[in-house]
Design brief:
single chain, about 290 residues, alpha/beta, eight-stranded parallel beta sheet, 9 helices, disordered N terminus, disordered C terminus
């Protein structure tokens, strides 16, 4: 504990020594600056489809209407949020760099054609970039992996579409080659899935994938190490929460976005991400779950 000395003036008034106060003020400011860097937290919004009809209950997950998406983006702009790609946010957090307080990253898993047709024009109106996690072996085809989950099969973007978005500042990154359950694969096959996607994105777009997203949100204790071994240092999960500098850079959570109300979006950005913190502290000694939900 630091002791403050006092000067006695005229035997009556007591004032703290100014040099001691200045010293304590500097220490407090430094501590606050460090804490601000440590506690930087930003929403990474997770979308899948935009403007696609919901044909079954399973398809409601992170699938919103075109009207709702526009309202989400308009709300973020009015609140002063600045969009960056997931790689930019993840790398800044990993390196301890400071970002504007109202920073957000907008991500789209799988690369559905509706993203270019419906979501991209809305984002372009406001000059906002986003991130697409592409399944390189399925580009230009459909989401065949969803048949087993009784979800509708819809078109995915082709390489030309991904290139157009990449040229406007969007990030196109790794969602594996074929969208498998990485946690059920042996390490050799899993790393082939990840590295093959890296190579195919670079060959088709002329840019390197800078981040990764786990298909289905499934992973085991070894999976992040395989992602790192493939040359990627930033990854996101399907666990709910805000991306923070104190998190493992390969296990950054996201904010799941679905529902038509802007109030729902606000609650997911401001309230819902903080709730899992209690659960994680309570079950800190338990093994890594198969899926972050």
């Amino acid at each position: 504990m630091r002791v403050i000395t006092f000067n006695v003036i005229s035997g009556l008034s007591i004032v703290p020594a100014m040099d001691e106060l200045r010293s304590l003020t500097k220490i407090r400011c430094k501590r606050m600056a460090v804490m601000n860097r440590i506690t930087q937290a930003f929403p990474i919004l997770m979308y899948h489809k935009v403007g696609q009809p919901v044909t079954c209950p399973q398809d409601r997950f992170v699938n919103i209407s075109a009207r709702a998406f526009r309202r989400h983006i308009e709300l973020l702009v009015r609140l002063g949020y600045q969009a960056r790609t997931f790689a930019e946010v993840g790398e800044a957090l990993a390196r301890g760099h400071t970002l504007p307080r109202r920073t957000v990253a907008i991500t789209f898993d799988d690369g559905y054609r509706c993203i270019e047709e419906i979501a991209a024009p809305v984002l372009a109106e406001y000059g906002l970039p986003a991130t697409i996690f592409a399944v390189s072996g399925c580009v230009g085809t459909t989401n065949g992996w969803d048949v087993q989950n009784a979800k509708p099969v819809v078109p995915l973007m082709d390489w030309a579409g991904l290139r157009r978005l990449s040229n406007t500042g969007w990030e196109i990154s790794n969602h594996t080659h074929s969208h498998p359950h990485l946690d059920q694969m042996d390490d050799a096959d899993a790393i082939i899935e990840i590295e093959k996607c890296n190579h195919e994105i670079e060959a088709a777009l002329g840019v390197k994938a800078r981040s990764f997203c786990y298909p289905y949100g499934h992973l085991n204790a070894r999976t992040p190490k395989l992602v790192c071994a493939s040359g990627l240092r930033i990854a996101c999960t399907m666990r709910s929460g805000l991306a923070q500098s104190r998190n493992d850079p390969l296990l950054q959570p996201r904010v799941k976005v679905y529902g038509e109300s802007v109030l729902d979006l606000l609650s997911r950005i401001l309230l819902r991400p903080h709730l899992p913190e209690i659960r994680r502290r309570r079950w800190a000694d338990r093994p890594l779950p198969r899926r972050y939900a």
